[in-house]
Each structure stands twice: as structure tokens, then as C-alpha cells.
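Quick review question:
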């Protein structure tokens, strides 16, 4: 998937402005669509990371340890990310 060029960005912003003017409630619903599901996934990843890291340390296996570390990293990055407006 490629990035939008300047002309496409301008067209998208014009569409967003006209939608906000015509129906602000719908525009807000579309803007925040899927945000709750992504936040929920980050929370679940954080909860799953702890036991996986502990299991990897206890058993001495790198697979659950690395999986737990990667999940924890993804969860922390998701928690600290700011939505783009």
C-alpha cells in the first residue's frame, strides 16, 4: 500500500471538512471507528506477555520468552501511541 501524495491528501481533507460540516456525529463515528478494538488488543497483549515471559524463564525456552517480550513491546507501543488527527 502506498502513501498518499499531496493532491490526494488535499482531497481527503476537503472530504473530511465537508463531512464534518454536514454531519458532525457521523464524521466523529467514522474517525474513531475501530479504535476500541485496537486498544482492547493492546490490553490483551499486555496481559498475555507476563505469563509468557515467566514461562520462558521458568522452562528456559526462548520461544515463549521472545513471544512475551514482543507482545509486551507491542502493547507498550500501542499504549503510548497518540492517535493522528
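Suggested answer, residue by residue:
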Amino acid at each position: 500500500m502506498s502513501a498518499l501524495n499531496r493532491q490526494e491528501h488535499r482531497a481527503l481533507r476537503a472530504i473530511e471538512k465537508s463531512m464534518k460540516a454536514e454531519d458532525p456525529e457521523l464524521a466523529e463515528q467514522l474517525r474513531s471507528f475501530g479504535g476500541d478494538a485496537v486498544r482492547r488488543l493492546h490490553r490483551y497483549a499486555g496481559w498475555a506477555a507476563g505469563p509468557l515471559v515467566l514461562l520462558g524463564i521458568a522452562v528456559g525456552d526462548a520461544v515463549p520468552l521472545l513471544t512475551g517480550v514482543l507482545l509486551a513491546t507491542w502493547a507498550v507501543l500501542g499504549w503510548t501511541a497518540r492517535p493522528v488527527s
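Why it works: The chain has four helices and no strands. The radius of gyration is 19 Å.
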